[in-house]
């Protein structure tokens, strides 16, 4: 189809008409924008059968001092009040010397599954993998597939005659799934042809990675970037900005995020709303949004210091992020990474940009946790959402004809374009 048209936009326009016919001439596709977009970055990289793109609002929170830099955090969301709440958390932290972070680990994983004729052969293979000399042999093979992928470990788990391998590697500034998969594929081929001809490769992924699923393994061992951060918030800031007190926050965090989550049997969900912040930053910076399920695993901990201030920390062992590849190449997403100061690859120290992004995300989660817990303590959550998370527009009725659809769409567009006098708003007072 692409060769029949002079431009990509004509190709997409044709596909939209065809898709509309497939849907019994449903005109809803007309509401999906498709012009003024560089599809050359999307083709063979981000999406197939492209019809257009989905605009999602982007706001920002900040400033927030993260280690040695002050950043403004772009957040792409349709949840009203989220950015305002984040902004309040940032303000409280900014008045209290900011956030300090530490990087606990950096590894992407891939977990293939292989099969042998019986359990004895499987066990012999496991022992062979665990031999240091053999590991070094496989490491050289793996590392030959990329300038940036560096194998750091191979773990083996046996289940009958099946062996589950877990390859761990650093992958520079890329999130690294494609990179590590390429290396694992070559290692498996070498194992099969040169050492274990009876080995059958069942799958490149046997779910031992563990990718796009919450797991105890990733929660304990880590995957992607493992980060922890902390801040000390002065009690005067807790009172003046967050409208609560230190003792109430510590008690709520214990009963909600620790006891409540444990009672519910959550896995890595010892937090108030980490996924909100992770998803918003993932959308704005072009991350793999499906990785939110693991990347949002977080332990939030609060305690009262000796002088009555609040110490808050967030530990996130599974932040699967990158600053090159995938959606990070798209113009808007790349711009958001540039705002954060970590776009593209770090030539001098490969991997530093992705690590920096993970630190910023962890600090942003801390700001979001601080503000939401404070809102719950003060009883402001429902009031703020009723004020900032409700649409005043009446929902459009389903169009029963072309004329009614166009009329409704025209009326909505006119309302959206009509100038409104909107007074300046201080986000720090949303929950006051």
TrEMBL record:
Keywords linked to the UniProt accession: Endoplasmic reticulum, Membrane, NADP, Oxidoreductase
Entry EC no(s): 1.1.1.34
Catalysed conversion reaction: (R)-mevalonate + 2 NADP(+) + CoA = (3S)-3-hydroxy-3-methylglutaryl-CoA + 2 NADPH + 2 H(+)
Keyword Thylakoid among record annotations: no
Database matches in SUPFAM superfamilies: NAD-binding domain of HMG-CoA reductase, Substrate-binding domain of HMG-CoA reductase
Membrane-topology descriptor: Multi-pass membrane protein
GO biological process: coenzyme A metabolic process; isoprenoid biosynthetic process; sterol biosynthetic process
Localization: Endoplasmic reticulum membrane; Membrane
Residues that span the membrane, as ranges: none
GO cellular component term, pick one: peroxisomal membrane
Molecular functions per Gene Ontology: hydroxymethylglutaryl-CoA reductase (NADPH) activity
Gene3D superfamilies: 3-hydroxy-3-methylglutaryl-coenzyme A Reductase, Chain A, domain 2, HMGR, N-terminal domain, Hydroxymethylglutaryl-CoA reductase, class I/II, NAD/NADP-binding domain
Pathway where this protein functions: Metabolic intermediate biosynthesis; (R)-mevalonate biosynthesis; (R)-mevalonate from acetyl-CoA: step 3/3
Family the UniProt entry places it in: Belongs to the HMG-CoA reductase family.
PANTHER family: 3-HYDROXY-3-METHYLGLUTARYL-COENZYME A REDUCTASE
Protein name: 3-hydroxy-3-methylglutaryl coenzyme A reductase
Gene name linked to the record: HMGCR
């Amino acid at each position: 189809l692409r060769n029949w048209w002079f431009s990509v936009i004509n190709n997409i326009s044709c596909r939209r008409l065809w898709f509309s016919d497939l849907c019994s001439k449903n005109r809803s596709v007309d509401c999906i924008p498709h012009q003024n977009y560089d599809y050359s970055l999307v083709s063979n990289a981000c999406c197939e059968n492209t019809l257009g793109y989905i605009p999602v609002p982007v706001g920002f929170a900040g400033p927030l001092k993260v280690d040695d830099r002050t950043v403004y955090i772009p957040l792409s969301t349709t949840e009203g009040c989220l950015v305002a709440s984040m902004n309040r958390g940032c303000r409280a932290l900014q008045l209290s010397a900011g956030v300090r972070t530490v990087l606990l680990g950096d590894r992407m994983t891939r977990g293939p599954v292989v099969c042998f004729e019986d359990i004895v052969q499987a066990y012999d293979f496991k022992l062979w993998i665990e031999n240091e000399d053999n590991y070094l042999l496989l490491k050289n093979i793996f590392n030959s597939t990329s300038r940036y992928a560096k194998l750091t470990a191979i773990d083996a788990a046996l289940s009958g005659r099946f062996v589950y391998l877990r390859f761990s590697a650093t992958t520079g500034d890329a999130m690294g799934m494609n990179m590590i998969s390429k290396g694992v594929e070559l290692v498996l081929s070498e194992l099969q042809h040169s050492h274990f001809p009876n080995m059958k490769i069942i799958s490149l992924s046997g779910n031992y990675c563990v990718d796009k699923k919450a797991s105890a393994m990733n929660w304990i061992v880590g995957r992607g970037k493992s980060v922890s951060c902390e801040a000390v918030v002065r009690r005067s800031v807790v009172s003046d900005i967050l409208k609560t007190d230190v003792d109430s926050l510590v008690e709520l965090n214990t009963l909600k995020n620790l006891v409540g989550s444990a009672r519910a049997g959550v896995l890595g969900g010892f937090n108030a709303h980490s996924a909100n912040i992770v998803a918003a930053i993932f959308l704005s910076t072009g991350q793999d949004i499906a990785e939110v399920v693991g990347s949002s695993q977080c332990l939030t901990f609060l305690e009262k210091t000796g002088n009555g201030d609040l110490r808050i920390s967030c530990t996130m062992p599974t932040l699967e992020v990158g600053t090159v590849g995938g959606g990070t190449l798209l113009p808007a997403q790349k711009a958001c990474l540039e705002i954060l100061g970590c776009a593209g690859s770090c030539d001098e120290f490969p991997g530093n940009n992705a690590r920096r992004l993970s630190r910023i995300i962890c600090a942003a989660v801390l700001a979001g946790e601080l503000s939401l817990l404070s809102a719950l303590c003060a009883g402001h959550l429902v009031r703020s959402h009723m004020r900032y998370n409700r649409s005043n527009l009446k929902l459009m009725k389903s169009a029963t004809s072309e004329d009614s659809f166009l009329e409704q769409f025209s009326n909505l567009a006119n309302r959206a374009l009509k100038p409104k006098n909107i007074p300046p708003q201080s986000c720090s007072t949303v929950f006051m």
